[in-house]
């Protein structure tokens, strides 16, 4: 049985995540307010960000950068700016 959330990123009702994928308060906020679709979009952006900036997820400073970008992307409607990345023309 899938659950539905009002996705803050997509601004529409959509399938919610099956379980909390991120720890702590932020993880709960994501679980309650972000859809599977928006989370999948973020995962792609996160991978690009990690590769672009050569981030190491074991480094607390690097994790902080990722978390800040994640909040901006998921909750503030901002896109992730990747240096040198040009999105394909729609």
TrEMBL record:
<protein>
    <recommendedName>
        <fullName>Probable Fe(2+)-trafficking protein</fullName>
    </recommendedName>
</protein>
<dbReference type="GO" id="GO:0034599">
    <property type="term" value="P:cellular response to oxidative stress"/>
</dbReference>
<dbReference type="InterPro" id="IPR007457">
    <property type="entry name" value="Fe_traffick_prot_YggX"/>
</dbReference>
<dbReference type="InterPro" id="IPR036766">
    <property type="entry name" value="Fe_traffick_prot_YggX_sf"/>
</dbReference>
<keyword id="KW-0408">Iron</keyword>
<dbReference type="Pfam" id="PF04362">
    <property type="entry name" value="Iron_traffic"/>
</dbReference>
<dbReference type="GO" id="GO:0005506">
    <property type="term" value="F:iron ion binding"/>
</dbReference>
<comment type="similarity">
    <text>Belongs to the Fe(2+)-trafficking protein family.</text>
</comment>
<dbReference type="GO" id="GO:0005829">
    <property type="term" value="C:cytosol"/>
</dbReference>
<comment type="function">
    <text>Could be a mediator in iron transactions between iron acquisition and iron-requiring processes, such as synthesis and/or repair of Fe-S clusters in biosynthetic enzymes. Necessary to maintain high levels of aconitase under oxidative stress.</text>
</comment>
């Amino acid at each position: 049985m899938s659950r539905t959330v009002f996705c803050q990123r997509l601004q529409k009702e959509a399938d919610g995540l099956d379980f909390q994928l991120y720890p702590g308060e932020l993880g709960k906020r994501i679980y309650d307010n972000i859809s599977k679709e928006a989370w999948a979009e973020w995962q792609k952006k996160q991978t690009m960000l990690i590769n672009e900036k050569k981030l190491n997820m074991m480094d607390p400073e690097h994790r902080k950068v990722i978390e800040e970008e994640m909040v901006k992307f998921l909750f503030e409607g901002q896109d992730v700016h990747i240096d040198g990345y040009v999105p394909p023309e729609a």
